[in-house]
Amino acid sequence: MWGNRQILHEKYDYPKLRLGAARADVGGTGAFQSIPSMSARKAYAVEGGVDYAFTTAFTGSADVLYRRNTTLSNSSMVYRLLGLYSLSKRTTLVANVAYLKNSSSATEALVNTTSGAIGGGVPGTSQTSVALGVRHTF
């Protein structure tokens, strides 16, 4: 059961530029996390981002996400940069860098750890994740 959910999303498209923003609130009597034995939590997330087509082949993106768990009084910030370079109509090079900063009690993670905490991270720690790859559409 998800309880109460409220989601607001806006997107603006221009010839080379796309701006987006979103806010989500979750709360209520139901448990919204993936651990059914836990009590319900109240949380919200706010995100803003921009995509820019530098050339017909290369697009860059930047996003910022703020997440606040109001039940446990902790928060996290995620900053992300993404680059997409089209080699052809079906093949794209992908580069993604993300940085996560947790407040002193937050346990969110970009890459799961063996901490055993909800979210997979260690309280108050930060993580950086780098992903490089090739996307081919069939």
Automatic annotation (TrEMBL):
SUPFAM superfamilies documented for this protein: Porins
Question: Which Pfam families has this protein been placed in?
Answer: Porin_4 (PF13609)
Which Gene3D superfamilies does the entry mention? Porin
- The protein depicted here goes by the name Porin domain-containing protein
UniProt-listed InterPro entries: Gram_neg_porin_domain, Porin_dom_sf
Where the record annotates domain Porin, the positions are: 11-103
